[in-house]
Amino acid sequence: MVSRLIILIMVWALTLGGVVHAAPETLEVSEIAPGVFVYIGQTALMTAGNDGAIANVGFIIGDDAVAVVDTGGSVREGRALLAAIRARTDKPIRYVINTHAHPDHVFGNAAFQADGTSFVGAKNLPRALAVRGPHYIEAFRRLMGPELIDEVRLIAPSILVEDRMSLDLGGRSLTLKAWSTAHSDCDLTVSDDRSRTLFAGDLVFLRHIPVMDGSLRGWIGDLGGLAAIGADRVVPGHGPVSPWPLALSDERRYLDTLAHDISGLIKAGKPISEAAGAAQSERGKWELFDDYNARNATAAFSELEWE
After folding, report:
1. Average pLDDT of the residues in 163-172
2. Distant-in-sequence, close-in-space partners of 239: CB < 8 Å, separation ≥ 6
């Protein structure tokens, strides 16, 4: 796990410097269904210039309370999300739901620490935060600067999802599902039953190349169960809100292509150093392809060579 983290840090460090724009004091959220609001993050790497605001985050307003789904890549972004919520409702924020442990989804958590707010995550999330969190903080302190990162707090969930769980916002039920190791080892999805909206976290990428930090085979294996979720639209971890389950088609093609190409290299007796050449047919179909495909391919080779 640590070796994969080091590779990811190197990728981030080597690719900084693009033109980006800082997140506003209040995030510009869109109401994609009645009571369901989303901020679409930039398709970019986390930098000081964009406050780490690269992942999709959102909130759902029930009759009695609010649930937040992911909080962003910095406490500054988290505060901007909180301001967007307060511009629309004064109902209490009952839950903050983290879809997994990656910095662009959890570094804003400290903005939501308040009496009566419970943090929710998959059963493996506390371990992931404990093991990886300090490394993430140190890496991004160097990359983004202490002004943004020193106020980040790693907040473990007090409510753990073993398999499935329902949360009540008052006349509005959310269905949470924990998944096997796929994008990460602590993936969680959130379905709003009233609006038939799925918050998929990083189990679903659109336009932004999928990023693998768990298991390629596990991710491919979860696609059928994901597709079976009854929803009309999906909020992916990265990319635009899209019809469901049609939104899975590009990701499925990429993951299948990666698995096919890596398996071919392994059968041909090629070394791991040639893994980066896998899935090149996907190059023009994804943003940030050159930032992440080689890492995905190397991790996939390490996994599949033992099959």
Report:
1. 98
2. 40, 43, 56, 204, 205, 206, 207, 208
| Average pLDDT score over the chain | 93
Q: Which of 69, 60, 87 is nearest to 168 (CA)?
A: 60
Separation CA 37–CA 302 (nearest Å): 39
Quick one: pLDDT at residue 128?
98
CATH of the domain at 167: 3.60.15.10
Question: In the structure encoding, which two tokens stand for residue 221, read together?
Answer: 């294996």
In a domain, residue 303? The reply is: no
Establish whether the linkage from the previous residue to 243 is cis, with ω within 30° of 0: no
In the chain the first and final C-alpha atoms are separated, in Å, by: 19
- The token duo for 37 is 């609001």
Instruction: Tell me whether residue 261 is in a domain.
Output: no
Q: How many structural domains comprise the chain? A: 1
Confirm whether 116 is domain-assigned: yes
Q: For the residues of 226-261, what is the DSSP string, one character each?
A: HHTS--SEEEEEES--EETTGGGHHHHHHHHHHHHH
Whether the CA torsion 218, 219, 224, 227 is positive or negative: it is positive
pTM higher than 0.85: yes
Task: Answer whether 99's CB lies under 8 Å from 202's CB.
Answer: yes
The alpha helices in the chain, defined as continuous H runs, are 2-15, 75-86, 103-106, 125-144, 146-149, 216-227, 249-267, 289-304
pLDDT score, position 236: 98
Has residue 304 been placed in a domain? no
Question: pLDDT tens, 6-56?
Answer: 334 333 433 333 333 344 489 999 999 999 999 999 999 999 999 999 999
Domain that holds residue 134: 2-10+20-244
In this prediction, residues 126-143 reach a mean pLDDT of 97
Residue 119 pairs with which residues in a beta bridge? 96
- Model confidence pLDDT, tens digit, residues 236-282: 999 999 999 999 999 999 999 999 999 999 999 999 999 999 999 99
Q: How far apart are CA 37 and CA 68, in angstroms?
A: 10
